[in-house]
Prior knowledge:
Helix content is 43%, strand content 16%. By secondary structure, it is an alpha/beta fold. A six-stranded mixed sheet has the order 10-8-12-13-14-15, sandwiched between helices. The protein has a five-stranded parallel sheet with strand order 5-4-3-6-7, sandwiched between helices. Strand 1 and strand 2 form a beta hairpin. Helix 7 (163-177) runs antiparallel to helix 8 (180-196) and helix 14 (309-323) runs antiparallel to helix 15. The longest helix has 20 residues, at 12-31.
Amino acid sequence: MGKQLVNYLFSGSVKKAILALTVTAMVLAFSQKPAAWAITVTDVFDRQVEVPDKVERVIALGGSMMFLTYLGAVDMAVGVEEIEKTVISKPYIMVNAQKIKDKPIVGSGGSMRLYNVEEIILLKPDVVFILATNRGEVDDLQRQINKKVIGLSIQGEDGEYDEAIFLRSILTIGQAMGMEGRAQKLADYVANLKNELSYDPGPGQRAKAYVGGLSSRGNRDLMSTTAKSMPMALAKIDNLMAGAAPGAAFISKEHLLAINPPLLFIDANGLELIREAISKDPLFYQRLTALVDSNAFLTLPHNSYLFNVETQYANAFYMAKMAYPAGYPDLDPAAKADEIYTAFYGQKLFGRLKAEFGGFARLRLKGTELVIEN
């Protein structure tokens, strides 16, 4: 009996069956991609993150959906933040309105940064992106959801916009998504924008200006400003608030009157609050030379759920034109804005922003009314 069993086990038919099972096991083993087949991405916080070589399901938190939109990859998002389904003055949210309206919500977004950890886990993203200010925030999220998290950013340690970090974030998400070509093209375009703003009258000859009405955790009036206005810096305009601390700055009426800026830029998000303030204290605002002499200019919203980066570049060209008209005789700021939005989003947006917020316009105080002159 034992000998018959041995002969059976080593019969040709069984040998074939064993071989077939072995081959099947090998195929199944190799069909499960080992970690070595993954891509290692180094994010902007120098964290090495291993992601699949083909990412198909993503979640973008903290406003990082902006970067996903730059790549034209919003369809890969399996969940969105609640704030991204609201109407605010942020271009990527305007662009995505119809694309994301039916996607599940994975967090509140905005300054609260409350995430639905359970929902994120259930949606099984291949990778999660987050726009963060520090490494700890990224590490903490990765521990909570036990998913691969890549940190992106747009600001330096001082909390101000940092172009090098912004460009690195574009290239980082491009690598993670397998869209390096698109990311590199956009990064090259952005890096070249500063070269187009080449006119500089030189130290001591530059225009001096103040920018007010900047949003900071909500819309603000004219007393809300910044020491580091990226658009003014690119336009070679001296910021009258350059000595203030980095980040959002809030000054008194007395301070504003003391500097009495010869050139004034007003953020569209703050326009209605500024008009409201004028109606309550017209005599104060009538002492501001720029408002009375039509040297005040309306710009597109600078901040909405962090920086509106592409809009800040568009504002830089408008500011340069208003400060140095002779230096930019052929510049059409509206056309340039549409070129910039097309580079970032593949579509012109200036017309929509103008209809919603007033676009680029000269402002003048007539009595108690702040009116748009053109």
